[in-house]
Amino acid sequence: MSVAFRRESDDEHKEPEFELPIPVGPNLVTERGLALIAARVAALEAQIAAESDPDAVKKLRRDLRYWTTRHATAQIAPPPAAGEAGIGSRVTIRLKGKERSFTITGHDEADPAAHLIAFTAPLARAVMGATAGERVDFAGEEEAVEIVAIG
Questions:
Q1: How many CB atoms within 10 Å of residue 30?
Q2: Gap between the Cα atoms of 80 and 87, Å rounded
Q3: Contact residues for 25 (Cβ-Cβ < 8 A; gap 6+)
Q4: Counting Cβ atoms within 10 Å, is residue 139 exposed (0-12), middle (13-18) or buried (19+)?
Q5: What CATH architecture does domain 90-150 belong to?
Q6: Are 78 and 129 in contact (CB under 8 A)?
Q7: Per the CB 3.0–4.6 Å rule, which of 31, 72, 92, 138 could disulfide with 149?
Q8: Per residue in 96-117, pLDDT tens?
Q9: In terms of DSSP H, where are the helices of the chain?
């Protein structure tokens, strides 16, 4: 029989499973972000204890490795200087005539739909260190963003 038609097992044709990617750079978090990571670790541990399917356990353990690494490397970001935008700040801006507000967070806490953006996002990087009343460059435009308020 030709080798081309021989099949050892189904496993050799599966896509390889990789670890979840860890964002590059420091794992800066807010206190809320640290609590969310700890809760995620506890939830995954409980799911693993209750799961009987070996494939499901394997996937849960991969997720748990990611979250335990994120918990172990988490550093609570220092508070920004008074009146300055930084991690943990609620920032209101005016961009192209529209006002919008968001909170700057760590990677794992970010949720753009809930107006939580990671400190590495381009908009967050543009406003960090700025104060109310300042205009900052953004997306290649000079003074494109006006900082309305920082809370």
A1: 22
A2: 7
A3: 120
A4: exposed
A5: Roll (3.10)
A6: no
A7: 92
A8: 999 999 999 999 999 999 999 9
A9: 31-50, 54-73, 122-127
